[in-house]
Every structure is written in C-alpha cells, then in structure tokens.
Design a protein that fits this description.
Elements (H helix, E strand, L loop, with lengths): L2 H25 L3 H15 L8 H21 L3 H34 L5 H10 L5 H8 L10 H11 L1 H16 L6 H29 L8 H20 L4 H13 L6 H25 L3 H4 L2 H26 L7 H9 L5 H13 L4 H29 L26 E7 L11 H4 L6 E7 L2 E4 L11 E7 H11 L6
Antiparallel strand pairs: 1-4, 2-3, 2-4
Helix pairs in contact: 1-2, 1-12, 2-12, 3-11, 3-12, 3-16, 4-5, 4-7, 4-8, 4-14, 5-8, 6-7, 8-16, 9-11, 10-11, 14-15, 14-17, 16-17
C-alpha cells in the first residue's frame, strides 16, 4: 500500500468516525461502538493485519489516554472534585481490586480447570477498571444530566482507576510468566507511591503550567504547541519518576481548570477536539486488532457473554456497594453508579500487554476482553439514560443548548474581567422580569440574550424568559457572586 493511499484511508476513517456522531444521535447508538465498528470493518476490508502492529497500537493507546485524561480533567471543576475525592479514590483503588477478585473467581468457576486461577485473575484485572474515554463521551453527551454529584464522581473514578488496573495487570503478567514471586511488602508501598506520586506530580504540573501559559508569546498559536508538549512532558516525567503518568495528566488538567492563564478558553476547546481525535483514532485502531472472524467463534462469544453479564450484574455492583457503605448515596444512586461501569479503550489497551509479553493464551484473552468491551458499550451505553430516568437520578437539561457565538478571551494581567453565559431556569427569580427590574450590581453588563437559536441585544426593557442564556461581562468576583445568587447549578 502506498503512502498516499494510506493517508487517504486514514482520512476516510477519521471522517467516518466524526460523522458517526450524527448516526449515534439519530438512533441512540453509543458513539464509541461506531468507532470500534469502523476499525473492525477496516481490518476486514484492508490487506493489512492489525496483529502485526500490536506494540505500535499499544504505544498510541498510551499517548491517546494521556490526552483524553488531561482533557477530561481540564473540563472538571476543582470544587466538584473536592466533594467526592475520598469516595472517588475508594472506587478507583479498592473498587478495582474488588472487581478484579470477584470477576476472577467467577471466571475460574466458569472455566473450571481449563485455565489456571492466575490466568483468570489476569483476565479480570484487564477488565477491572471503567474507561475514561467511554464515560466522558457518554456522560457529557447532550442528553445526559445527573442529579447531585453523581457525574463528577463517575468521571473522577473513570479518570483515576486506570493506574490500579495497570498495576494489577503487570503484577499478574509477572506471576503468569513465573518470572518472580510477588512480594507484598515491596509491591503494596509501590502502588501507594505510584498513585500518590502521580497525584502530587499532577498538582505540581498544574501549578507550574499556569505560570508557563502566562508568559507573553509573540504568536498565539504557540500556546497550543506548548499545551500539546506539556501533556507529553507531564506523562513522561511522571513515569520517569516511577509514579503514574495517567493519574498525573488527569490531576494536572483539574488543577489547570481552576487557574487563570492566557487563551484558557481556546485551549480547553482545543484539547476537547484533540481528545475526540484521540478517541476516534484509538477505538478505530483497537477495532483493527479485533479479527472479527475470531470474535464469533464459540470459545470467544459464549464465555464473553457469560463473563460480561457477570461483570455488569454481579462483580461491579458488589464492588460499588461495598465501597459506598455508609456514604450519602441512596440505593438507587448506587445502582446507577454500578451501571455506569462502562468498559472501553483502557481494558483493550491493557490487553495488549499480555500479547506483547507473550503470556500463554494471550490472543484468546485479548478477544474475550474485546468482546466484553463491545457488550458493555452496547448494553450499558445504550441504556444509560433509560436507567437514569428509571432510577430517578436524571435531571432535566435543555434539549439542545447553543453556546453564544461571542466569548472574551482573557490575557492574564490585562484585566480582571471575564464573560460567561448563564442559563435562566423556570425556578429562577429572573424569569419574567426585565433587565431594568433585575438591576444587577454596578459593573455587570449583560451583552446579549440567547433565546432558542436567536440572539437578542440586551436592553433595559428586554424581558427574560425561561431557558434564556445571558451573556454577562463583569469582574470575576462579581460573576461568582451572580452565579451564587441567581444561577446556582445553571452555569453553562
């Protein structure tokens, strides 16, 4: 295949992945399932075998997950994370271990003496963590709205549980290969160091990053170059220090979200687009590894269905309920948290490690993981909002909120003003009043009103209606006061 032909195919696959969002919205299909399907179709049609590029796809998967996690953190408010951090870490660490052991026991009972208990534990370790790419993509869809702090909890868990799953995977690979005995006295403190060190380095990178982006550069495009480089540096340096790069990237993004620096809005949008590019590319490449003819063989799909359902209905719920004992979450909320245990790119990326290391029956293991991921994305992703409504944890959101076309991009040090859009809900005291009657404090300027798909100039006699978006310019402190007084939980 020529280089030009390869570029053409890459372009077609990326376009197909991006445009599949329209199909996803029309038929309520999980977007990530369509990305995987594109990769499976490509592997079926092209004269190239994905199994010849396992190491390269593994490397791309690591890089993609770093950018996806950083983008997820960049769009997560620090104050929301503080409220759920303890429970989130319990789910991300203890929850993963419990899921792995419960799932491993179930797999061993199912396979009997066909495979060793260590092999079954390795299989369960691969699939023990929820996937950040899948959870972020589904929970941040247009139709999703969750009550209370469910969404930040689920996003924090999915963004921070990969390190524990990676540790379990590498540990079980070592034991399956019989290279060395597992020393609890050494390995357990090492896990604490990796996770804790990843958090600390992420905090440092977030603190240093805000000063880096406050440097005045001659060309604004260079800020985006620096941002790309900063994520790579954050992951690489964290790994070199023996900590966890994935955790560092996610925490760095969260810390950057709470800081003010040059071109922040543009950088957030840029990384959102980059994360989508990485998700599309990653899932297509992982689909390229699937070997679809092998997935429909009885020794794959039968145990895949049984173990996938066991994971969804027994292992994950048991781990969640044990981790959330004595928490403020209700029984229905715990059920929903259990149901959002969506598997995606991370387990498939981890499943390439046994392939690369030469673990016995690693090909079968990879196919089982791939099948379970497809099952999870299809069933759980497809029924997510139905489950939220049934369990009464969904909240009403505007059906198709449009952002105002005007934004104020702040250069640090130039002023302390900002411009943000707030939505007026039916419960708001602003609904039905004119701007003159509201009488916002001095220094607050309502520049425009968004109503449905139209934009109305803001005047004193402009009457505010339910669902309106107010584009307001003021000093940051005033904007915070307005949010607390009039738009609590309504900031777009």
């Amino acid at each position: 295949m020529s280089f030009d032909a390869a570029l053409t195919i890459v372009g077609i696959l990326l376009l197909a992945g991006a445009m599949s969002c329209k199909i996803s919205s029309r038929f309520n299909l999980p977007t990530l399932l369509l990305f995987l399907s594109a990769g499976v179709a490509a592997e079926w049609l092209l004269p190239v075998s994905g199994s010849d590029f396992v190491q390269q796809i593994n490397n791309f998967g690591i890089l993609a997950m770093a950018y996806i996690l950083y983008s997820g953190g960049l769009e997560t408010e620090l104050k929301a994370v503080k409220k759920i951090m303890v429970r989130g870490l319990v789910l991300a660490c203890i929850g993963v271990v419990l899921t792995a052991f419960i799932m491993g026991g179930g797999a061993f009972l199912f396979f009997g003496s066909k495979y060793s208990f260590l092999w079954c534990l390795l299989l369960s370790s691969l699939i023990s963590s929820t996937d950040a790419a899948a959870v972020f993509a589904i929970l941040r869809g247009r139709s999703v709205g969750l009550k209370g702090d469910l969404q930040p909890l689920l996003e924090f868990e999915s963004g921070s549980n990969d390190p524990m799953a990676a540790f379990l995977t590498l540990m079980m690979c070592t034991l399956c290969l019989g290279k060395e005995e597992f020393n609890w006295g050494i390995e357990i403190p090492l896990v604490v160091y990796k996770l804790g060190g990843g958090v600390l380095f992420g905090i440092f990178a977030g603190w240093a990053g805000k000063y880096l982006f406050r440097v005045k550069l001659d060309f604004e495009g260079l800020y985006f170059v620096i941002s790309v480089a900063w994520v790579v540096f954050c992951y690489g340096m964290a790994q070199m220090l023996g900590t966890n790069g994935f955790m560092a990237c996610y925490v760095c993004g969260v810390c950057m979200n709470g800081s003010h620096y040059n071109y922040k809005r543009g950088l957030v949008k840029f990384h959102n687009a980059l994360a989508w590019l990485m998700q599309i590319g990653l899932f297509i490449l992982l689909g390229f590894l699937a070997q679809p003819k092998k997935l429909i063989e009885p020794d794959v799909w039968i145990p895949g269905v049984v173990l996938g359902l066991f994971l969804m209905f027994i292992a994950r719920p048991a781990a969640v309920f044990l981790c959330l004992i004595n928490s403020h979450y209700s029984f229905k909320e715990k059920l929903f948290i259990s149901w959002v245990g969506i598997r995606g790119a991370a387990p498939i990326v981890l499943a390439t490690f046994p392939l690369a290391l030469g673990v016995e029956n690693a090909q079968l293991m990879f196919r089982l993981i791939f099948f379970i991921v497809i099952l999870s994305v299809t069933i759980q992703g497809w029924t997510l909002m139905a489950a939220a409504r049934k369990l009464k944890v969904a909240r009403a959101v505007s059906g198709n909120r449009e952002r105002a076309p005007l934004e104020l991009e702040i250069m640090h040090g130039s002023c302390d003003q900002d411009m943000r859009e707030f939505e007026v809900t039916a419960e708001s005291e602003l609904a039905g009043k004119t701007l003159a009657e509201i009488a916002f404090p001095s220094g607050v300027l309502v520049t425009m009103i968004r109503r449905n798909e139209r934009f109305i100039p803001a005047k004193g006699n402009s009457c505010i209606e339910n669902g309106d978006g107010l584009l307001i310019m003021a000093e940051r402190q005033l904007l915070h006061e307005l949010e607390e007084k009039y738009f609590k939980n309504d900031h777009i």
